Amino acid sequence: MSRTTASAHERSTATPSPDRTKPSTLRIAVARTILETRIYFRERDSVVFSFLFPVVLLGLFATVFGGGETVFGEATGGGVDFARYFLPGMVAAGIMLVSFQTLAIGIAVERDEGTLKRLRGTPMPPAAYFLGKVGMVLLTGLAQVALLLAVAAVAFDVPLPGDAGSWLRFAWVYLLGTAAGTVLGLAYSSVPSSARSASAVVLAPVLILQFISGVFFVFNDLPSWLQNVASVFPLKWLAQGMRSVFLPDRLEPMEVSGSWQLAPTALILSVWLVAGLLLCARTFRWGRKGDS
């Protein structure tokens, strides 16, 4: 081998080419986000349910309780119609559908089918998998909320906030609620024992929380003990935070506490976010129960 050839060979082996450089975790996470989003939208049944369920419920409330009736009309000197009042609850419920429910069921199915175990055997960092799920939830959640708000404004004449402060409040409530729902969905995905039982095990607590958290009913009309139970869980605070965004300020005194409670909302959603992260670290499994 000539000296020139040997020098070239040494340079090629000493310094890897850019094409052979291992991609960063963030780059892999972006790729996983795109892949997870594509997979999500291929599941047409799940997409239709997650996207249309809040829209259909909002339409039912507006139709059944419509006819010029308002919520808190006498107490506030001019209440709001039912479509406007229940819109925040539908937004909160939609966020929980695409975060907690979608992940808890989807990951349980992936685990049961062996998909998670195969992914764990690849060079992909585990953090990239989780970040891909988070990215998918953020994208699909924004699309779902945008659809719901568009239908509410066009079909039911619900006025949307016109000031930057309200949309800034929406942003942090949305991000905290989505983040908490996502990590709790990741943690709860270890509860179902199989793919067959996943839907029943996940849907039961979701439906119960929707009934007691001010999604389907005026929260003030619930018994006080149910209000106290709901206050432990994040959905109640997510719905209340969204009411502070989409309802007029004159309805703030009609809350059970007499205010929107923005500071407690941020605190409790953050606590659930941290709790979900700790639960994920302790309970998340890549394989089925009993797998070696």
From TrEMBL:
One of its GO terms (cellular component) is ATP-binding cassette (ABC) transporter complex. It comes from the Bacteria. Signal peptide: none annotated. Residues 1-18 have a biased composition (Polar residues). Residues 45-287 form the ABC transmembrane type-2 domain. It is a multi-pass membrane protein. It is found in: Membrane. Its main location: membrane. PROSITE patterns: ABC_TM2. It holds the Pfam family ABC2_membrane_3. Keywords: Antibiotic resistance, Membrane, Transmembrane, Transmembrane helix. GO terms for molecular function: ABC-type transporter activity. GO terms for biological process: response to antibiotic. The chain crosses the membrane at residues 47-65, 85-109, 130-155, 167-188, 200-219, 260-281. Residues 1-22 are annotated as: Disordered. This is ABC-2 type transport system permease protein. It comes from Haloactinopolyspora alba.
